[in-house]
C-alpha cells in the first residue's frame, strides 16, 4: 500500500496548540489503499513532548537533544520518513479531515510534484477568517508562482506550511533549505520552479495566528528580506540552469528503498 508521511517539527516552549493539531491528524480520512505515518521531531536541549503522543499509534517520535532550528529539525524528521508522499504540518496548524481525500487524488489525475489546498486563518479566539487567493486555483505550471512572487516584492501567494509533496522530488532538492526563517518557502520556490503543481480551491487546512509564532519575533522580521531573497535567487538559478524533472517522475507512487545502512564516521578526529 502507498504510504504518506506527515512531517512535523515540534518545540515545547511554543507547543500550546499541539493537542488540537494531534486531534486533527487523528481525524484524517485516507483514500482507499493508503496508509499514514506521522514523523514528529522535537527540537531543543530538553525534550518535553513525547508524552503528548502516547496512544497516537501512527506517530514516530524522536528528539534532537539539542537546539538545531526548524529547518534542521524538519530534515531530521525527513530522514526517518518512509512515505512516497509527504505532508508538511506545523505543530500549531490544523489539517481538515478530508484534506487527503482532496489532495492525494490530484497526484493521480495530473503529473505533478506538489499540491496544496486553500486555507482559512485560525484566529486566537477560534474564529476562522477567509483568506482570498490572489492567484487562480488549479494546475500551476513550473515557474509561474515564482514569477508572481518576484513581481510582488518576494511575497508568495501560497504558504509552504501545509504542502503535500512527492518525497523523491523533495529529497532530490535537499529537503528544507538551511536558512533561519522561511525554509519551507525557499524549498517550495525551488520545487515549483522546475515542476508543476496543483493549488486546490477546497479549504484543506487552517493556518493558526498566535503571539508565539516564529515569524512574529524581532529576529525573524530583521532577516525576512534576506531569506526571501534567497528563495528568489534559488528559483532564478534553477530557471537559468534549465533543470526539469522528467515526466515519468511525476507518475505513480513507486517507493524507493530507504532502509540504508549507516555506520560510524571513519574520519580521524583525534588531536
Short description:
This protein is an alpha/beta fold and 271 residues long.
Q: Strand share of the residues? A: 15-25%
The CATH architecture term is Alpha-Beta Complex
> What is the CATH topology descriptor?
Spore Coat Polysaccharide Biosynthesis Protein SpsA, Chain A
Question: What is the H level of CATH, i.e. the homologous superfamily?
Answer: Spore Coat Polysaccharide Biosynthesis Protein SpsA, Chain A
Q: Span from first to last CA?
A: 50 Å
Tally of structural domains: 1
Provide the helix percentage.
Answer: 25-40%
Look at the structure and give the mean pLDDT: 94
CATH class value: Alpha Beta
Shape: globular
Oligomer: single chain
**Alpha plus pi helix count:** 7
Summarize the biggest pleated sheet. Answer: 10 strands, mixed
Counting helices, strands and paired strands, the structural category is alpha/beta
Sequence of secondary-structure elements:
EHEEHEEHEEEHEHHEH
Instruction: Return residue spans where pLDDT drops below 50 for at least 5 consecutive residues.
Output: none
Rg from alpha-carbon coordinates: 18 Å
- Report the count of strand segments: 10
Domain Glycosyltransferase 2-like: 5-134
Keywords: Transferase
Protein name: Glycosyltransferase
Pfam family, one: Glycos_transf_2
Brief descriptors of the model:
271 residues; alpha/beta; Spore Coat Polysaccharide Biosynthesis Protein SpsA, Chain A; 10-stranded mixed sheet; 10 strands; 30% helix; 22% strand; Glyco_trans_2-like; transferase; Glycosyltransferase; Nucleotide-diphossugar_trans; transferase activity
Amino acid at each position: 500500500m502507498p504510504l504518506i508521511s506527515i512531517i512535523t517539527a515540534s518545540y515545547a516552549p511554543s507547543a500550546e496548540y499541539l493537542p488540537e493539531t494531534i486531534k486533527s491528524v487523528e481525524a484524517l480520512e485516507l483514500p482507499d489503499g493508503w496508509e499514514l505515518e506521522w514523523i514528529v521531531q522535537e527540537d531543543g536541549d530538553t525534550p518535553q513532548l513525547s508524552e503528548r503522543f502516547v496512544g497516537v499509534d501512527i506517530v514516530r517520535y524522536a528528539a534532537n537533544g539539542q537546539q538545531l532550528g526548524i529547518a534542521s529539525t524538519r530534515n531530521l524528521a525527513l530522514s526517518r520518513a518512509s512515505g512516497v508522499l509527504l505532508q508538511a504540518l506545523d505543530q500549531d496548524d490544523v489539517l481538515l479531515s478530508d484534506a487527503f481525500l482532496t489532495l492525494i487524488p490530484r497526484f493521480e489525475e495530473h503529473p505533478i510534484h506538489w499540491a496544496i489546498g486553500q486555507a482559512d486563518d485560525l484566529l486566537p479566539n477560534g474564529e476562522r477568517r477567509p483568506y482570498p487567493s490572489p492567484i487562480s486555483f488549479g494546475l500551476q505550471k513550473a515557474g509561474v508562482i515564482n514569477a508572481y512572487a518576484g513581481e510582488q516584492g518576494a511575497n508568495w501567494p501560497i504558504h509552504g506550511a501545509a504542502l503535500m509533496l512527492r518525497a523523491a522530488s523533495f529529497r532530490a532538492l535537499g529537503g528544507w533549505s538551511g536558512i533561519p526563517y522561511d525554509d519551507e518557502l525557499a524549498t517550495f520556490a525551488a520545487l515549483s520552479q522546475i515542476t508543476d503543481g496543483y493549488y486546490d480551491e477546497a479549504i484543506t487546512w487552517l493556518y493558526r495566528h498566535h503571539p508565539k509564532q516564529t515569524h512574529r519575533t524581532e529576529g525573524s522580521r530583521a532577516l525576512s528580506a534576506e531569506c526571501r531573497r534567497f528563495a528568489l535567487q534559488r528559483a532564478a538559478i534553477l530557471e537559468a540552469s534549465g533543470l526539469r524533472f522528467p515526466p515519468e517522475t511525476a507518475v505513480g507512487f513507486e517507493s524507493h528503498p530507504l532502509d540504508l545502512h549507516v555506520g560510524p564516521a571513519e574520519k580521524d578526529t583525534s588531536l
